[in-house]
Design brief:
Helix content: 40-55%
Strand content: 15-25%
Strand order of the largest sheet: 2-3-10-5-8-11
Oligomer: single chain
Radius of gyration: 20 Å
Number of strands: 11
Structural class: alpha+beta
Shape: globular
Length: 293
């Protein structure tokens, strides 16, 4: 049995202390000289979205007990809840990366499927080899977002950056779709069930939150569904369902004028009180408070 790794939470706030980085509050951070970063000595657990491109040299690390090797031309994409340790890098390593808080990520996405290709596929294959044109696209987004981050006089800086990040997520998701189509990597049974499960959750999370219901649609037992989803993503079906439900609620709170009572009805909660309790349990604040943030 593999030894359990005790990880220290990694955060954008801590990363802001690194040299040669640009940031906006504790929501987004850009680093364009990865070679000057000091690799941590201990395991770290991510609580943000990470997207990085290696432009020279190589990096090795372990993610959730799986060894990862990254070379020039490789993109790394990962979301929250990953444990990363055993870092090592060549002396000539260079690259650029984005760190995006989950709070900003949920503000950026317009519906729960916006970034599915990129971040669902990354749970199984976080390292993707980019073509020259895709590296150019990544670099263009990085440079323009960095420019907007440094423009403190812009009245619309936050909105511009959110819009650019959403466009980048779409473009990189398109890269992943093409990569999947031409990849010779064999999909495991767990990968297949996980993908089918996520598609069902995307389509039905507004009305259905029971793991047993999703298992029934896939003609498997809830226990087997849990085992396969945990194997493929290191998270439980309930984690994924809650994530999608919360994403839907966040979008409705921020991007619509619907009352909390109407949102509760739309999301198939018994009443507004149940929705409020559920939301506060997962977000730490009430729906009305979140809407004002």
């Amino acid at each position: 049995m593999a030894k359990q790794v005790k990880a220290i939470p990694a955060s954008i706030e801590r990363a802001k202390e690194w040299p040669n980085c640009g940031f906006m509050d504790n929501d987004i951070l850009l680093i364009d000289q990865i070679g000057k970063m000091r690799m941590p000595d201990e395991a770290r657990q991510t609580n943000f979205i990470l997207i990085a491109l290696c432009t020279a040299g190589h990096v090795d690390f372990r993610m959730d007990m799986q060894h990862m090797h990254v070379e020039a031309g490789d993109m790394v994409a990962s979301s929250e809840h990953h444990i990363i340790d055993n870092y090592s890098a060549s002396d000539d390593v260079e690259g650029m990366c984005f760190m995006v808080s989950m709070r900003l990520f949920h503000e950026i996405i317009q519906n729960v499927s916006d970034a599915s290709a990129l971040f669902l596929y990354s749970h199984t294959y976080p390292v993707i080899r980019l073509k020259e044109r895709d590296k150019a696209v990544f670099t263009e987004y990085f440079n323009i977002i960095r420019k907007k981050l440094n423009d403190g006089k812009s009245l619309f800086r936050h909105n511009l950056i959110r819009t650019l990040m959403l466009a980048m997520f779409y473009d990189l998701s398109n890269v992943v779709y093409h990569f999947q189509d031409h990849s010779d990597r064999r999909q495991t049974r767990a990968d297949s069930i996980f993908t089918q499960f996520i598609k069902l959750v995307e389509e039905n999370c507004r009305k259905e939150r029971r793991v047993s219901w999703y298992a029934q649609q896939l003609c498997i037992t809830p226990k087997y569904l849990s085992e396969m989803v945990k194997s493929a993503s290191k998270r439980t079906p309930n984690d994924w369902i809650d994530n999608y439900v919360m994403s839907e609620i966040r979008v409705m709170l921020k991007c619509s004028s619907a009352s909390i009572k109407d949102i509760a009805k739309e999301m198939n909660f018994p009443n507004q009180s149940f929705l409020g309790k559920y939301f506060k349990e997962h977000a730490g604040v009430s729906p009305s408070r979140y809407r004002k943030l």
